[in-house]
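YM 10:42: Protein FAR1-RELATED SEQUENCE sequence, as discussed on the call
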Amino acid sequence: MKYYVERNGDPPTRHTVFYNVAEKKAWCECCRFAFSTILCRHVLSVFLLAGVIMLPEPCITKRWTKKAKSGPELIGLNVGNGSGSADSTASRYNDLVRDAIKCAEKGAVSAGAFRVAKEVLRKAFVDIRGHGEKLCKDALHSASRR
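YM 10:58: structure's back
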């Protein structure tokens, strides 16, 4: 299910929340849960509207349990294949941050390295934005065919 959560304020804001009833998962375009593992108010308001009175299990991460101090948790990492690929948004985000920090460390060494790093990051951002726009167009196209 797709919900639009709006706030009439200055400026007015609108967030899209997707709620999968079967899997009991909800995610918002603000990506707060992916970055901080804290549910945003947009998802919480959808839970209220949908009549969910207890947080579903997928919304409770190890960070908020008694097991949080038992050691590091590799959330969604496929350790066995050695590729470092991740299943969860938070894991992918953390992996990208580590790579960006490595790029920044190497790129800050000299002016030439800085220019190369900036150009590589600019190209990557353009490619990622193009990929996101293609996904949106594909989704709109498939929705219009229904």
